[in-house]
């Protein structure tokens, strides 16, 4: 080979190498535009983490173009995730996610948006002002088996009231359930801080239990992904997890900003209601570390087993793929 041919060949290889660097890798690059599912439509202040990540540029910071696809309840949300209609979930009810995975749905937890619930157990005053007085009455839930179905049952049981002595009616989102309660179509339900903040305007509704004070172990919203998606898009999921954690930290330390974003996605709510909802939220609501403890997970699965929704739950280590949260926390530090 002549020197001229060698130089020419080397230049070609260098050019090819540079060209190769410009070609996106298969998998992660294909998921730069991401559809994230949420079980709440309309959303609530308590579920604004992905909206904040979009609005304040946390996703964009890591080269991600994400949108939130809203569903009315967990059942349709799970189907959409399994069918590939959406790429990942960010606001899926924790109990639904656990039950689905235990029933062999190939999905795993990748980040925890809300490690505790934002719920208040509320009822029509005429139906009863105590849990015991509500026996035999109707409780609205988003769906049978959803987190809004299990939470009142846990509250009732822990308070010494038999949860089997109630009628559970599938209605929909927290906003839908609150409307049904106000209209007198149902007797009680669990609502989020957003709805609870309005109770001063509805003297016929009474707030009976601030749920996290009775049941702090139950997580609220999980970020779930299909196993095949996780295998092909590990770097993308790490970036998403980091953005979610940063968003939650921003929300937890920035009331004015959080209320401002909430107002954009909930234009029908007043700033006063949103401000009151923020103040009434337990500070632990927004997962500043993006995870849930093994003890909380085990408490939740033990309850689900007890009421017949689980037979063989996945162990914590199999259900929660911690790689992405752990990597993010290594860089961000734990709070």
Précis, in short:
With 335 residues, this protein is an alpha/beta fold. It is 45% helix and 16% strand. The protein has helices spanning 3-22, 49-55, 58-61, 74-83, 94-102, 147-158, 174-182, 193-196, 211-214, 227-232, 234-252, 255-265, 271-280, 294-306, 316-319, 323-332, and strands at 33-38, 65-70, 88-93, 107-114, 120-124, 138-141, 167-170, 188-191, 205-210, 221-226.
Could you describe the 3D structure shown?
The protein has helices at residues 3-22, 49-55, 58-61, 74-83, 94-102, 147-158, 174-182, 193-196, 211-214, 227-232, 234-252, 255-265, 271-280, 294-306, 316-319, 323-332, and strands at residues 33-38, 65-70, 88-93, 107-114, 120-124, 138-141, 167-170, 188-191, 205-210, 221-226. It is 45% helix and 16% strand. The termini are far apart. It is an alpha/beta fold and 335 residues long. β6, α6 (147-158) and β7 (167-170) form a beta-alpha-beta unit. The relative contact order is 0.18. The model is unreliable at 1-31 (pLDDT under 50). It folds into two domains: 29-116 and 218-332, Periplasmic binding protein-like II (D-Maltodextrin-Binding Protein, domain 2), CATH 3.40.190; 120-214, Periplasmic binding protein-like II (D-Maltodextrin-Binding Protein, domain 2), CATH 3.40.190. The longest helix is centred in the first third of the chain and has 20 residues, at 3-22. The strands form two sheets. The chain has a five-stranded mixed β-sheet with strand order 2-1-3-10-4, sandwiched between helices. It is globular, with a radius of gyration of 23 Å.
